[in-house]
Structure prediction request, 704 residues.
Amino acid sequence: MTSAASYTLTTPLEAVPDLTSPMVKMLANEGITTVGELLAEFPFRYEDRSQMEFKGFTPSLEPVCHHVRVTRGRTVRFGRRSGFFEAACEAAQSNPLNQQLTLRWFNMPFMNRTIAVDMELIVYGKIKEIKGRLVMGHPEYEIVRGDAEDAGALQIHTGRIVPIYRLRGGLRQKLLRAVIWQVLQKVDDSSVADRLPKPKADREFAGLHRGKALCDVHFPIGKSELELTRRYLALEEFYILQLRVLRRRLLWRANTGWQQPVHQGQLAQSFLKSLPFTLTEAQQRSLDEIRRDMTAPEPMNRLLHGDVGSGKTVVALAAMLQAVEAGHQAALMAPTQILAEQHYANACRWLEPLGLRVALRTAERKEDNVAPLFQNQKTSHDGAHILIGTHALLFDADAMPQLGLAVIDEQHKFGVAQRARLIAAGHAPDVLVLTATPIPRTLALTVYGDLDVSTIDEKPLDRGQIVTLVRTEKKLADIAKFIRGQIEEGRQAYIVYPLIDESDKLVAKAATAGFKEWSDLLAPHLVGLMHGKMDSAPKNEVMSRFRSGEINALVSTTVIEVGVDIPNANVMVIFNAERFGLAQLHQLRGRIGRGAHRSHCVLMIAEKDVEARDRLNILVETTDGFRIAEEDLRRRGPGDLLGSAQSGEAPLKFADLLGDTRLLTLARRIAERTLSEDPTLSDPGREELRMLVLETDAPAATLQ
Ligand code: ADP
Ligand code: MG
Prediction:
């Protein structure tokens, strides 16, 4: 860290004398041209080589590291193509036990030219005992050259926690590590600008700054220092993410909104009174939060988060009535035709008695028996108080200049760009997003970080219990018998075949075959069929016959997944359950358990799929969507849960969404403070930060 030959992050690698020009070229081919870019090649794991003294070779389940010397090499061939190379080794420093370790590489004939007798290697892998010999198969290895230069370099590669890099473009592990080491020796770490604001966010990180973290992350002094560094960099990552979402929030709130106060609350009152139930406490609390937002002049941007069946729709409708009372229109957008139809049917049933006009707008059907509300209104939507449709409605914002509230049902992909479309005639409507994807709170802060969140965390009391079972096809006859029994008691059943992709013909076929089979199994009871390949007219017809109870069992693909609400259906059988994520199964299962009857969900798996049985057990144990989501997150990572919601965001390199909850909350607090001082991040000291944060702003959104 002498000032004479010190580098900054922008120093071009060409100006680093320690690097050979082939090396510079190789790095450049991978897009690494500056010191900063080189140091951003973070290790993807570490090997603890700090304890290298030899205590004998022993079989191990975990990979181990040894410094060995090759005593013999041989190639064994099984034919022209296949064979293996093996090298017999002993411990390099001292071998009091006189033990031997065999390294073995299959189908890598060139190894006999790479490895020679008397060579010293650092090897890393699992040791197995095979026919009385201790064998390390396909070890990772580094050659220790015996020369003076290498001896000096040995301190980089052994006797410490050693970084392991993902190699690309012909780069070699040991060489890359040495290069990063050499460069780090001369980086002036005080020249590295911090991303986190000073004073330091947290006592825990008091001694750390970005420059030091960059050194430590490559060559940590010890395990606890490494963990501290990782946490520091994780905090930084979360901070940038939070700045992004909070800025999106600011941008939305900077639009001109409507003030939609509860005048008398007459409409909503009569609506709620007309329901055959009273709101749960959680529903009431959520509704109050929504109302407060709608009353304020800034446009609302709120998420109503609640497990399947918790009763989000009613809350949303009550909010819509507040917009209507304030003299505006309200729109409800559903992800599918079926759900739009269902919402439409409910809204007509509940709201038309109150004298309200409800209209349906989907790509396939436009229905309203609605005369214009006021004489001089021209556009077709103007007559309706309440508009219900698929997301296509979004694209028609200009036809809804009086839109006061937009409710987006079951949509995770409702991003900045879509929201911007809702702005018409200079006004941004209040926005309420409904979701049943019970993502853990921490994840919600990230994905929905620009939204305020209301959570319905209790279900109506009158719900029957759901019993979940995992079964194999052997039990089909028993299951059919059980379903017949339920049907004879007046209940209904869903039978679901997996859908990998809407256009999957095979699945439609499986459902069609299943339909035949179940028609026989359940005869003379009536079975219906529904899949994504059907036109919407027959689809709607089947759905309404099932809804009315005429059809006793519905064989379908996952088109019934979200939102469908038929309380009398209390049995669900899901075939090939192993193909679904836990969260998705939970959603599907949410179609039952909506009435007062006890419900049964049967998850069908292949005979010997032990892994699936184990995974699906969480669904047997609990109907708590949040626990299930966490389990899903643990097992499959956030990608599946979020779908493309997080696309566009860089994946997290250091932060762990499950484990680093405290850091995430801390990052949000710091980000809030930063933006309250400097909403546009225009402080000259925040140049780099601004670039990192603003790169994801949608072009449509600008801050006035
Ligand atoms: P989701 O949150 O899954 O969208 P819905 O809004 O579809 O749930 O509600 C599920 C069912 O529960 C509907 O039949 C609805 O009428 C009913 N429901 C809603 N709130 C209550 C309540 N407080 N008490 C009893 N039933 C309710
Ligand atoms: Mg719903």
Observations:
- The pocket of magnesium ion (ligand 2) is lined by residues 312-313, 409, 563 (CB under 6 Å).
- Residues 223-253 form the longest helix (31 residues).
